[in-house]
Amino acid sequence: MGNDGEILERTRRRDRPMKVSIFDYGTGNLHSLEKAVERAGVEVVIESDPSGALRSDALILPGVGAFGAAASRLASHAPSIRAALASGHPCLGICLGMQLLFETSEEGEGAGIAALRGRVRKLHSRRVPHMGWNDVETSDDPVFRGMQPFLAYYANSYIAEPADESNVIAWTEYDNERFPAAVRRDRTWGVQFHPEKSEQAGLQVINNFLEAARK
Fold this sequence. Notes:
The protein has helices at residues 3-15, 31-38, 50-53, 67-74, 78-86, 96-99, 199-214; strands at residues 19-23, 43-47, 58-61, 91-94, 104-105, 118-122, 130-138, 150-156, 158-162, 168-174, 177-185, 188-191.
């Protein structure tokens, strides 16, 4: 495509609503997440085809389901998804979706997308799962723009252990165990909490992600 064609394509994208794909692993209800993303004024598509999900302006991997089943659905497409994320396609992984960004998980068989190096393991806490509201200790990152440390809603039995701790952009603590609340590599973000269940703070995280994805 020549310069004129590139300019025309950029203008066309700028003039239409942003399109966001939520990938459906086929294991749960995505209605609350869909509505939370729609509130940001974007077009939302629930997509069960991984390759189709990458034709959007941004990809969201939701937090509904189990690692093994979701990894199986993604298996044949993991290399192309990993390549797309490495080339800058914006992505937000939520809870299970964040864990799928890593290489392996104790929760189930199969491999993750491996957009980030590291593994997922079960919480060592006495009380599992970790359910309910907890603190998010934020860092200076676009997804937390304009936000102080805040409360978010969690529902997890497993946590990520990144090989490179510099990928961690937020932390939380539960039952004396400290673990990543959010991770990032380039334009790929993951949050262990559920922003769609975290009221105004969660909506702000979604809005900030979409704003970063537009740039």
